[in-house]
Specification:
By secondary structure, the chain is α/β, with parallel strands linked by helices. The protein has helices spanning 9-24, 38-43, 53-57, 68-84, 86-90, 108-118, 137-145, 149-164, 236-246, 278-282, 294-302, 314-325, 337-346, 348-364, 366-382, and strands at residues 2-4, 30-33, 47-50, 101-103, 122-126, 179-181, 198-200, 223-227, 252-256, 270-273, 285-290, 307-309, 329-331. The longest helix is centred in the first third of the chain and has 17 residues, at 68-84.
Length: 383
């Protein structure tokens, strides 16, 4: 089978873990992604199919320009360039096409064309909240921003490319197509709108992509993990607020920069890394402070760690709304981090709700449930 990813950490790690589980079950898995992830693909037992640099660069936005509009435009450019580089994806596989294409929603148009070429079925893999009729949050973003010259140019390019293949927008949907969603149904907004074709398996937190060890210092201070992910992370003013709130306080702070550089000197109780094995840190943590990436938020909930959120992008706000609605943490302004941290970690109600949601997440099945769903579907269509 072929897995089409969006070459970004929050999208690759969970889908690659599912690919690894399928490979362990004996499936021949080809995983399409950027060259930066090729070693991880090999390690997981899959065969990498490397995207061109032009395709990977489609989602690259200078750190100072990153906002919801630019991220959404990047996803649209990813579709545009995927269509332009379609031959690089199908040529290596034409002699022995896959029996199934599993795809990140950002690669849905490319998946449709490849499936049409090979006559094979598709299944969607949602690393974030799913969408459907009545709750089409990606469509709402496109409608909100579509209108500027860049948007019109990219939209016209995609339309022309589809027309060359004899397709229009109506040909890009497959009624009843199965989808695997990497959140539990309880956290999915408007969950009642989603039919049985959607399988909610909860967070994906195992496999080689998530491996790593970490141990806290022996001083017994509560640990706070601060993570802004790998995209909305160039925020020096937020680092100022973190130092003000936690510096030289009775906390041990694990701060991840996610590839962002800084020459700042941090207080002695700050442990600063570009990357850390977040699951390992969260096993010892008393608090997660984040802008709302769904991967780390769900990992915290699974570990029963309260969450403080300073949301930025549209998806962050959706995650924050669900965290607050379920009583699993709180949103906070940078100026009130210290008091909010004390309040949320002391809350018995938050602890009880975290425990209940963690149990629901575990019951959803995670990686094995995702692989079971894909395996059942591919066995059914081949039979």
């Amino acid at each position: 089978m072929l897995v089409l990813s969006l070459p970004a950490h929050g999208h690759v790690h969970p889908t690659l873990a599912v690919a690894e589980e399928l490979a362990l079950r004996g499936y021949d898995v080809t995983y399409a992604t950027g060259n930066d992830f090729s070693d991880a693909v090999f390690k997981c037992g899959a065969t990498p199919l490397t995207y061109s640099p032009e395709l990977v660069d489609a989602i690259a936005v200078p750190s100072g320009d990153r906002n919801t509009e630019r991220v959404t435009l990047g996803a649209l450019r990813f579709t545009e360039r995927g269509l332009a580089h379609l031959a690089a994806l199908h040529d290596p596989l034409d002699a022995a096409p896959p029996h199934l294409i599993a795809y990140d929603p950002a690669a849905s148009v490319v998946a449709r064309l490849l499936a049409r070429r090979w006559g094979v079925p598709t299944i969607a893999l949602h690393p974030n909240f799913a969408f459907t009729e009545g709750f089409d949050w990606p469509g709402e973003l496109l409608a909100r921003y579509f209108g500027g010259p860049e948007w019109q140019e990219v939209g016209a390019s995609i339309g022309a490319a589809l027309a060359q293949h004899g397709l229009g927008p109506a040909d890009l949907t497959v009624p009843g197509e199965p989808a695997v969603v990497f959140v539990p149904r309880e956290l999915q907004p408007h969950s009642s709108l989603f039919g049985p074709e959607f399988t909610f398996v909860g967070p994906i937190t195992d496999g080689s992509s998530f491996a790593g060890d970490w141990a806290p210092p022996s001083d017994g201070k509560p640990v706070v993990l601060i993570s802004l992910g790998t995209y909305f992370n160039d925020r020096p003013e937020f680092l100022d607020a973190c130092v003000e709130a936690f510096g030289d306080q009775p906390w041990h702070v694990v701060l991840t920069l996610g590839g962002c550089s800084t020459d700042r000197v941090f207080p002695a109780n700050f442990e600063v890394h570009q990357w850390v094995p977040q699951l390992a840190v969260l096993r010892h943590a008393a608090l997660l402070l984040t802008n709302g990436g769904i991967g780390v938020v769900q990992a915290a909930i699974l570990a029963e760690v309260p969450v403080l959120l300073v949301p930025e992008g549209h998806e962050h706000h959706m995650v924050a709304d669900q965290v607050v609605a379920h009583g699993l943490g709180a949103t906070v302004s940078p100026s009130s981090l210290h008091s909010a941290a004390s309040a949320v970690t002391a809350s018995a109600s938050v602890r009880d709700r975290l425990r209940a949601m963690s149990l629901r997440m575990r019951a959803a099945g995670g990686t094995k449930a995702a692989a079971d769903t894909i395996e059942s579907y591919v066995d059914g269509v081949i039979a």
